[in-house]
Structures are given as structure tokens and as C-alpha cells.
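Lecture 7 notes. Example A: sequence first, then its C-alpha cells.
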Amino acid sequence: MAELTTLARPYAKAVFDAAKDHDSVDAWDQALAFAGQVAADKEIRRILNNPGLSEQRKAELFVDCFEQALPEALRNFLLILAENKRLVLLPEVSALFTLFRADLERTVRLEVSSAFEMTEEQQKKLVDALSRKLERKIDLETSVDQSLIGGAIVRTGDLVIDASVRGKLAKMAKALGS
């Protein structure tokens, strides 16, 4: 996966810079998210990896998956990816583009799993505290995982804060076992 991300990064950066220059970051983010979902489909991936099809034909088949006519810039981007045999990178390009956008907008998406449903007040306190700590706007997504017993796990990118009872018990068991 890291290799795919490395290959996708220059494409994502180039298209992000172009979108930023044309003040169309939101439109590109949505278009790439959809293109990434299409490219991640098992059947589409099989077509994209088919050595019997020309890259031009793969691009045409891929473009045909869209219900609406594509903007010229997106069509050109897909053709460039096809020429370089990189259409399979679209899910990674989309993910990287979204990260570049979040960095530009100084936002971060947090996923919080807690043992019990968080109240509005708890969510607000968490968002305020982490917003100050990270110096970013917080987009909070919460879920309930009763297996945590108590506490919560906070995830964003590669940062994980495990403040759950289950996590503390696992650390204690590991310490006692060593």
C-alpha cells in the first residue's frame, strides 16, 4: 500500500495544485472521490489490470462509468493516468487529494469510538480541546463500541489515542506477562 501511495503522490499533488489555482478544490475532491470508488471496484480493477486492453481503451471504459459528461480537465487527467498505466492509483490519488485539502483548510477528521454514546456537551469539550491542541478545525465522527468497556479511542490518520478500559487492561496484562 505504501508503494501505491508513493506512486500516487506526484499525481495527487499536481492535480491538487491545479485545482487550487482554478479555485475548484471542492469539485475536484468530489470527482476524485467518485473516480476512486469506481477504480476500487473489483470488476473495474480487473479491467484496469487486463493486459489485453490498450491504455486508451481502459480510459474510455473508465470514463463510460460516469453518468454525466466529465469536465475536460478531469477527462485529461484520466487520460494522463491511463497513458502512464496508473488508473489503478485513483483510490490513493483521491485519498491524498483529500489530505492535501484538509491541510490547506487546516481541518482534521477525528474518529472517536467510545464505550457509550457521547453527549453533545462531551463531544463539544473533546472538539474544543483537540482543536486547541492540534491547531485545526475538527470534523468529528463518533461511534459506540461496547467492547471498550469504558473510555474511548481517538483516531486521526496515523495517530491513535487509546484511553479505553480495554486498552488499559491489555497494557496491564502485557506488563504482568513480561
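Example B, a different protein, same format:
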Amino acid sequence: MCDLMPASQPPQKIGKMKKLRRTLSESFRSIAFKKEDSGFDEICVTKMSTRSCQGSDSVIKPLDTIPEDKKVRVQRTQSGFDPFEKPVSQVKRVHSENNACIAKGSSTGKESPKLRRHSSPSSPTSPKFGKADSYEKLEKLGEGSYATVYKGKSKVNGKLVALKVIRLQEEEGTPFTAIREASLLKGLKHSNIVLLHDIIHTKETLTLVFEYVHTDLCQYMDRHPGGLLPDNVKLFLFQLLRGLSYIHQRYILHRDLKPQNLLISDTGELKLADFGLARAKSVPSHTYSNEVVTLWYRPPDVLLGSTEYSTCLDMWGVGCIFIEMIQGVAAFPGMKDIQDQLERIFLVIGTPSEDTWPGVHSLPHFKPDRFTVYSAKKLRQAWNKLGYVDHAEELATRFLQCFPKNRLSAQAALNHEYFSNLPPRLWELQDMSSIFTVPNVKLQTESGDSIQVCARRNSHGKASSGSKH
């Protein structure tokens, strides 16, 4: 089960925040200068001494053995910032394709033989990692108030990349969210987590260079209405849990799980993305329905004002996504506000009480007289397709628990009976090995043939596909 992490600290004053941002911005600038002087091609991000940017190289200990002041969680720290406001990548995602890993420069400053095929170390104008002119922008994928995302191509190795160009304001410096995302992703190496290839810092912009992945789970489900094939749901869910188990073991919470943030490669590999919870992530929408869509995957404890986050926060989102893949519709599509969202949840899960959820009455937004009292139902009464797949309803029930500590952890879920018919080798894979390297593991079409997931973008940035499931 899930252990709670400490509540967030009070936000700092605006003046101090701006001063700290400027200091961190200078740190990024100095990193860029060091890379230029040393000739190294590897990504180099210094460890920032902030609460939310912790290194992941230390020995991992069980959560309950770590002192309270040492526990780490991903959170927004900006004053007046809604920790669950709509990120800038919701309408048009950063889509990416598998890219070769960045070649690491030796201690003598020499480039690897692989890099020398593309550039000559003796030429100062040769394309190098860490340089803005080493990437060619091919098309714009999305633009928001703080960043623009491009599909690009590396001049160093010829691979496709996704370029997230974050505009820097002179007074504000480098956004905390960008620092957080870069600091976290530089230490996460897993086949089910989007890969950060490079960081480019100039006076005007900070560019994060990601592997390019073709589409995301939201677009994939849109192209396959009515629910995905059960075997495909199982493979997608296994990969999601595999990625979450990896970050949860490192005491990192994603905190924004939703189909738009789960990228799908051309081979069907699922990758967790959007770790910074930054505002500069997608095209912002001011329409009412799109603004509330982020509520759909938010757990009831957070909706009721709890700030005691734990890995359980992510597991509620897993349950919602699991049901949406099977049923073909969002599990709790609230259309009005937090009150409406909670009513939809309680209608199925049951209205909580102190007996079923110890401490619920102490949550800031829980007022017993505001909610209709519903009794809990079997999930198949709300989503009938759960009853057609062995063990699916029981697993979904373990995720969708109102009381956070009752939710199943990612690691425990990987060992659930729902996955019992998958090849045993899947549990023996190394972190960077795809599940599709195991024989007979592949996505299926309705006819039973394996397929490749391929979504292409037209000139308007909309996904299209010629394949059916």
C-alpha cells in the first residue's frame, strides 16, 4: 500500500522567488558556457539545491525508513500556482520517436567514433550537442504562453527529436518547472519514460530536447473508439505500471497522469512524459470543458483539499486510465466543477464516511451536508466491459479506493492476477529494455495480427493514421 509523504511548505514571497529564479537561471547559463569550453557532448545539469530537484543517485531505501525531512515528492512551488492547473501540453502533445542515446564525451574531451561519423572535432562549426544550431526545426507542434514545441531533426546523428523551447523572461529567469523537469529527467533512464537528450540554454530561451514519439494514448484511443482490445489494454497498463514503479522507487510522483501525458511510439511502447508539471507544455485552451478535463483523473483526496501526497495519488489516475482504455469513455468526466467531479465519483465508489475513510471529515473541502449519500456499487454496474475481462474489475477496484492508503501500489499491481497470462520474462527485463523485445509480445488488431502504432502529423499538427486498431 501507499505511505503518505509530508505536506507542502508555504509558498515563498514573490520577491524571494524572483531572486532565486535569477540565480538558477545564471546556473543554467554557466552550464552552457562550461559545455562550450570543455568540448563535452554529454548532457550536464548541475544538482540544484531546491526542495523539488533532488538527485536520484543515492541508495534507495524503503519509504518508511526515510526521515520525514528527507522524503521527496514532485510539486509546484510557485506562489499562487494551482498544482493541478491545466498544463500547456493538453491539446497538442509533444510527440516523439525513438532516438539514439546521446554519446558521452570522454574525460579527454574526445568525441566517440559514432559522433565522428557526423562531425569533426577539429571543426568549430561542426554540429555538437548543447548547441542550438545542431537541431533543425521541421514543424511546429504546439504553442503556449511560455513555450513552443517543434518537431526537429538532430544534425549530429540525423534522428528526429521534439524541441520544447521555453521563453525566458529577463526578470523572472529560468522557470522552476523547467528546472524541475530537466533535473528529474536527466536521472531517469527507463524504456517507459520519455528520454531527455539534450539541454540548450541561451539568454532568451531554454530548450529541452526529447526523443520524438509519434502520438499519445489520448489520440490513440480517439482513433479506436469503443474501447481498446483487451490484450492491448493489458500491454499498455503493464508498461504504465512499469514506468511508475521505477519512479516511485525513487520517491518521485508524476502528479499529472492522464492519457495526453502517456506517449505511444510507433511500435506501441508507452512512455511517461511531462514530469515538470510546467505551464509551458501544450496549447492552452480557454474553453470551459477543456479547462475542467484535468479534474477527470484527480483523486478524491486531492479534490477535497488534502496536501498529504504519496504514490497513491498517481494510482488513482492509473485506475481511471485503465477503465477508459477498456470501456472507451472517461471514468469520471466531470463537466462543471470539483463538486460535480466528486458527485460522479461518490455515485460509483460510495460517499465516504469516517468508517470507510478515517480522517475524511478533517479535509478542508469535505462538508457532509454538501454531498448526497451513495452506497458503493460494483464497478461493472458503471462500466460493463470490466466484467468481460478476467480479473479486470478486481484490479480496477484496488486502484479506485477513496481512502488513499487502500490503493494498490504500482509494484504490487504488476504482480496482480490480471497479468498472469503474460510471459514471465517481462518481469526480468532490464530498465532500458522494451517489453516488445520478449518473443510473442506485440499489439494486436481485431484479426489477431500484430501491427505498428503509427500516427502522422499533417501540416496543421493534427494526428492521423491509416491503421485501424
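Note on Example B: The radius of gyration is 22 Å. The CA atoms of residues 241 and 410 lie 5 Å apart.
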